[in-house]
Amino acid sequence: MWLGKENLIMSKKKVLTKKERINEMTILGLFIAIIAVMGLVPFLGFIPIFGLSATIVHIPVLIGAVLLGRKNGVILGLAFGVVSLIRGATSVGFDFVFIFPWVSILPRVIFGLIIYDVYRLFSKFIKVRIVALIVSFIVLSMIHSLLVLPMLVTTFPLILGSASWSSTVGSVEGVLEWMQDTSAFSTAMKWILGVLVTNSLVEALLAGVIGGTVADRLIQYLKLNNTTFRVEE
After folding, report:
1. For domain 18-224, is the CATH number 1.20.1420.20?
2. Closest CA to 219 of 227, 27, 113, 204
3. Cβ contact 59:207 at 8 Å
4. Which pTM does this prediction carry?
5. How far apart are CA 141 and CA 60, in angstroms?
6. Which of 50, 68, 90, 224 has the fewest CB atoms within 10 Å distance of its CB?
7. CA–centroid distance for 63 within its chain
8. Tens of pLDDT along 55-96?
9. Which residues contact 107 (CB under 8 A, 6 or more apart)?
10. Where are the domains of the chain?
């Protein structure tokens, strides 16, 4: 529900005052800055695992979207996507494929769009807020992986048709030899399964434990300070 003097329920709209809008924009800017720092500083927001990076940059996107609502969630998802594109343009290994906007940006915008509503859905059935946050963040993190991975596969024909893997994505020990012995489709399926079992599970658990705990504390803090944001008890 809305956290304010009037304690309005979620379904009712409330026009924010100028001060409240400034506060909301300030918090939004802070989250965007966190995303940028985590995404662009090496090994801070993207953790290399088997030639591809496991990301924890989606954690501030999750927290910010829950606190600030659907529209701001889209903005945070867009910021995440742009940072991912920049990283792809300056990286080697499989991260190179994130130079394509439909891989780096489109899934992250959709991700930011659904966060607020998915959390609200879980909060209706799970009455303990921190548990609802942890469960919804784990599910959302897996959804994020399922949004990104099919887009990654669409880049395979483009890359394989234009240049060898060694000259396009750089040398990743063992990967090139593995790919030479399998068909493109079989390679894609094995790679997706491997990423889901490794990177995606790590990302989901980190998002649930870290993101859910931080989001719960922030919501409690805003409630105690009578701050008006789009958060739910």
Report:
1. no
2. 227
3. yes
4. 0.77
5. 12
6. 224
7. 10
8. 788 999 999 999 999 999 999 999 999 998 888 777 666 667
9. 81, 144, 147, 148, 151
10. 18-224
